[in-house]
Amino acid sequence: MTLSKIPTLAALLAFAGCAAETFDKPAPPSPPATPGFYASMAKPGAKIDAQGAAEMISLYRGNHGLEPLTVDPALMEEARRQAEAMAGADKLSHEVRGSLTERLNRAGFAKSKAVENVSAGYHTVAEAFSGWRDSKPHNANMLAPGMTRMGIAAVYNPHARYQVFWALVLTN
């Protein structure tokens, strides 16, 4: 190797060492994830955090000496159907698909004790929960003794007056 190439080679090795150093540095920490109960349901394809909702409502129930709730897939489906029917009709109603008893009987929950909250206009689980908590009849449903299973749904209809329709079903 000629003496004239040594400075060039040294410079390349030094640059390579710097480049390797850059790649060895740890990535900056990711920002903390937003809890699912703050996710907006006011957009197409939004997915509700049912487990987060169950934990929130169960904690509230526990603070009142009541049993926790578990997410039930069949009740999730029933809540989704009710929320879809309300969103499609642009109407907030417990009766849009028949009474709660009729609907639960059709879904295989005959003789279950059950309560239901419906609402519209809230964009997040946290907002819906707060609205239900602040309403005496809705709060009584969330604090109904003996309830152990739940289903919850939010359906978005951008053409409806309230845009997001909610259904919460609790059973024993």
Automatic annotation (TrEMBL):
Gene3D superfamilies reported for this sequence: CAP
Location of the SCP domain: 57-167
Keywords linked to the UniProt accession: Signal
Source organism, top-level taxon: Bacteria
Signal peptide extent: 1-19
InterPro entries named among the record's database cross-references: CAP_dom, CAP_sf
PANTHER family per UniProt: SCP DOMAIN-CONTAINING PROTEIN
Protein name: CAP domain-containing protein
The organism of origin for this protein: Rhodoblastus acidophilus (Rhodopseudomonas acidophila)
Organism taxonomic ancestry: Bacteria, Pseudomonadati, Pseudomonadota, Alphaproteobacteria, Hyphomicrobiales
